[in-house]
Amino acid sequence: MAKVCYSCGKKPSFGNARSHSLRATRRRWNPNLQKVRVQSGAGSRRVWACTSCLKAFKVQKVTAGTPTAPETV
């Protein structure tokens, strides 16, 4: 499973790291993804969500006492 945000689809971006001599080497910028348990239908499932979606409440987190459904891939 790729590390992509469940809500907004944010994924790593790629570019060049530039040294003092401006020599280019490839690098990637990863989004701040957290593994959280979210409400999915009647049950819950564990997904990757970026912190900007968590702070904006775009992902419905599971509260204590909610029944969990078996995870399907």
Automatic annotation (TrEMBL):
BP-aspect Gene Ontology terms: translation
Coiled-coil parts of chain: none
Pfam families, A to Z: Ribosomal_L28
Instruction: Supply the Gene3D superfamilies for this chain.
Output: Ribosomal protein L28/L24
Arranged from A to Z, the UniProt key words for this protein are: Ribonucleoprotein, Ribosomal protein
InterPro entries from the UniProt entry: Bacterial_rp_bL28, Ribosomal_bL28, Ribosomal_bL28/bL31-like_sf, Ribosomal_bL28_bact-type, Ribosomal_bL28_sf
Q: Name one GO cellular component term.
A: ribonucleoprotein complex
GO MF, any single term: structural constituent of ribosome
Q: Which residues are the signal sequence here?
A: none
Origin superkingdom: Bacteria
Q: Which SUPFAM superfamilies match?
A: L28p-like
The record's section on NCBIfam families has:
L28
Q: Which family does it belong to?
A: Belongs to the bacterial ribosomal protein bL28 family.
Q: What is this protein called?
A: Large ribosomal subunit protein bL28
Recall the taxonomic lineage recorded for the source organism.
Bacteria, Bacillati, Actinomycetota, Rubrobacteria, Rubrobacterales
Instruction: Name the gene for this chain.
Output: rpmB
